[in-house]
Amino acid sequence: MPKSLISIHDFTKDEILHILDVAKEFEANKTQPILRDKVVATLFFEPSTRTRLSFETAANRLGARVIGFSDAGNTSVSKGETLKDTIKMVSNYVDIIVMRHPLEGSARYASEVASVPVINAGDGANQHPSQTLLDLYTIKQTQGRLDNIDINMVGDLKYGRTVHSLLQAMSHFSPKFTFTAPDELKMPQEYKDFLTSKGIPYQETTELTEGLNNTDILYMTRVQQERFTDIMEYEKVKNCYSLIASMLAGARENMKILHPLPRVNEISQDVDETKHAYYFKQAENGMYVRMAIIAYLLGYK
Ligand code: CP
Hints:
Layout: H1 13-28, E1 39-44, H2 50-61, E2 65-69, H3 83-91, E3 96-101, H4 106-113, E4 118-123, H5 129-143, E5 150-154, H6 161-170, E6 176-180, H7 189-198, E7 202-205, E8 217-220, H8 231-237, E9 256-258, H9 279-297
Parallel strand pairs: 1-2, 1-3, 3-4, 5-6, 5-8, 6-7, 8-9
Helix pairs in contact: 1-5, 1-9, 2-9, 3-4, 5-6, 5-9
Bound molecules: phosphoric acid mono(formamide)ester (CP).
Phosphoric acid mono(formamide)ester binds next to helix 2.
């Protein structure tokens, strides 16, 4: 079975650091057509702006060609074709598959039936490992290191797949966590147990103001409306936090605000003008990191 990236655990610490180094090379030299004979498929069964477009841009900057879909409703999935058959078919056309799907575990399943590498671009509330690698790249870029970072994760820690992947990846680097979430959206116990097993400290709070001044990275997240089965439950928590610029007066000089985006109203637009805002650069970094991931899984770099 070819090597895929489904969970952040699929890469060792050394592989993670290697990807970050290669991404830095790509940031310095943005177009390197080393994959001229390759075809990349982007199969998006769920909406996306950044992940799909940055993967497609990454493939183009590497000289590869891209096929795929952004709406499975226009494919034979709408006629009842199974995920297995879709993946087996596409495997015969391309050299690597990037897939986003609403079902947890679907990406692992796809990698087991595919004859080419699969990159998980998000499977339900489970994992989003390419986002994690770009988050790590951005943390290193802004803090000059990955070790001993104070990181405060805010918002939907229950359904937010980016925080689950990032927490696991940061476990290589002795972080300290604060989890800021309403009771309904707390970090699931399995992830807290994982941290305990690694001896990594965390604290939990429901108050956004409590953890703002003693953190290096403020990792904001959107409440994931699409994961709620009861819309009334979503209505109760949808505006749980809203960060505004005046709340940042006591923040550490080096503190940067990250957000996987899209944002709804958890970060006010006046924050964009502060020295702490870094989420748009973070999204740009996704392109370099995804160039590195594609090149690595295809045996280049
Ligand atoms: N961060 C992220 O996954 O964004 P998209 O949903 O726009 O791809």
